[in-house]
Amino acid sequence: MPLRLLQLTDPHLFGDPGGQLLGITTRRSFESVLALALSESPAPDALILTGDLVHDETPVGYRYLRERLNRTGIPYYCIGGNHDIQSLMMEQLGPAALVSVALRRLDGWNLIFLDSSEPGSDGGRLTETQLTQLTDLLADERAPALICLHHHPAAVGSAWIDRIGVANGASLLDLCNRHPHVKAVLFGHVHQEFSAWHGDCRLLGAPATCFQFEPRSRDFAIDEIPPGYRELMLYPDGRLTTRVVRLVEYAERPLYQAGGY
Ligand SMILES: [Fe+2]
């Protein structure tokens, strides 16, 4: 049986249950996507949350997330994004909060989590220390690997988003190409489905659980498409299949005319 992982990303939660961002009540949209994600069988082996967990820097937002995810009974892993406060995340999420470079072994696969956030910046960067640790880890650990981080390490085709990816993403992609057991790099931040190849390594972005960004847009633009999540099936021989699943419709309409958030 393959491992079944579900990626939920960029929930942008608030301490206030009614907290809205660009017209979306982000707890409500997160709950809707989570319910959809948990409605199919078999139950996932783990949930992966790739950052921008809480938007308003409140402990309450993280506590809600912990309590909600604990209720699923499914193991979960969280990394921070540019909107997260690492100290709050660690304090409230405990061992599920992964920072710097973290390895979790799951049924013959290695899940490697990287903190790509750079304090004070919407963009991301990996430190030399992280890249060195990752190089050593990939040399030692030869099982098929999935790397998870918040920011995108390669351009996704939207000029404004591509200015705030991983500044030194090319270093990460070089490493992946030199270690063919890295099967995919999984990220959030782009609020849209994205899939590409870098050599033999897949690059995968997922819809946010709140509002979506318009693909291939030069400037900030909101897309009408409903929120969703990404499913990944990881096979023992290193094969990986994946798909994006979205709500058929979502009741709230985002503020399409917004120029930013
Ligand atoms: Fe985000």
What is the count of distinct domains? 1
- Low-pLDDT runs: none
CATH superfamily: Metallo-dependent phosphatases
Please state the overall shape, judged from the principal axes of the Cα atoms: globular
Can you write the helix and strand succession as a string? EEEHEHEHEEHEHHEEEEEEE
Overall average residue pLDDT: 97
Please give the share of residues in helix: 10-25%
Strand adjacency order, main sheet: 6-7-8-9-11-10
Name of the CATH first level: Alpha Beta
Strand content bin: 25-35%
Biggest sheet details: 6 strands, mixed
Cα Rg: 17 Å
Q: If helices are DSSP runs of H or I spanning 4 or more residues, what is the number of helices?
A: 6
CATH architecture: 4-Layer Sandwich
Task: Tell me about this structure.
- GO terms for molecular function: cyclic-nucleotide phosphodiesterase activity; metal ion binding.
- Keywords: Hydrolase, Iron, Metal-binding.
- InterPro entries: Calcineurin-like_PHP, CNP_phosphodiesterase-III, GpdQ/CpdA-like, Metallo-depent_PP-like.
- This is Calcineurin phosphoesterase domain protein.
- The mean pLDDT is 97.
- The chain has one domain: Purple Acid Phosphatase, chain A, domain 2, CATH 3.60.21.
- The longest helix has 14 residues.
- The strands form four sheets. The chain has a six-stranded mixed β-sheet with strand order 6-7-8-9-11-10, covered by helices on one side. Strands 5-4-1-14-15 form a five-stranded mixed β-sheet, with helices on one face.
- It contains six helices and 15 strands.
- The chain is globular and about 45 Å long.
- The chain is 23% helix and 27% strand.
- It is α/β, with parallel strands linked by helices.
- The structure holds fe (ii) ion (FE2).
- Fe (ii) ion binds next to loops.
